[in-house]
Amino acid sequence: MKKSIFGRLDGRDILRFVLECLGIGVGAVIAAFAIEEFLVPCTILDGGVVGISIMLNNKIGIPLGILTVVLNVPFLLVGAKKMGKRFIVKAAYAMVIFSVFLEVFAPMVNATKDYLLAVSFGGVILGIGVGLVIRFGGCLDGTETVAILLNKRFKLPVGQTVLIFNIIIFVIAGFVFDFERAMYSLLTYFITSKVLDVVESGLEQTKAAMIITNDAKEISGQIYKKLGRTVTIMEGEGLVSGKKVVLYCVLTRFEVHELKEIIKHIDASAFIAISDVSEIIGRHVKKTADINIK
Predict the structure, then answer these.
(1) Which helix (H) or strand (E) holds 25?
(2) Would the N or C end of the chain have less CB density within 10 A of its end CB?
(3) pLDDT (0 to 100) of residue 117
(4) Which of 144, 178, 200 is the last residue of a domain?
């Protein structure tokens, strides 16, 4: 069986990948609709690259779709070697679909020019769109890629890093436009974040995964190699199945999809339980030293 950048190819893998791309595409279209029909007419910013693109579009007139693609390219290049080929391909696909439909929706009649309606409905619809993209393993904004890389290298929380990026962008927007507009943008961001969490099925940025498998060494090695996460290996015994090895690791919600892909290609029969983590004390990521995995 041939291998590709996505691992071993069979009918189920191809079908799954097609369905994931379909889900990412739908999410990207919904997000583009929210941006162009609700936020842009009221000059309300989204966070990250899109927020910067809206400011530049307003000031220099370059189409929003083109700006979004161009500004995201450096982030994709930075993350290309660290995030895995599957993630980067999906992120690039999501960003292209998003940018194309920004231009498709741009000439249409705006849904509303009322600020409160734009913030409320725009934030909810945008959260649904971005949530779908993340749920199926994609990414719409390059700043999220940088936040994940910083998390792996410096242990900075992904959610807090993205929030800091966006607060800086909103403060700049306050000087470029006015601070009332910046406050509307910040409120939209919080609404979007909450809806995104519900759609993506996780209220916390951090997740804990417990994996019961017969291929513990190979799975833990791939988790460390591809995600930069150390794994705790424990011995267990099933009531029916007998002796088992249990793996435990902590990761971000953006990495859950990649974790499932790693396990699926090594041990499709593995049992996986993923739960929310409300607080972490101590180091849970280790990428600074090599580990001898036999």
Answers:
(1) helix 11-34
(2) C
(3) 93
(4) 200
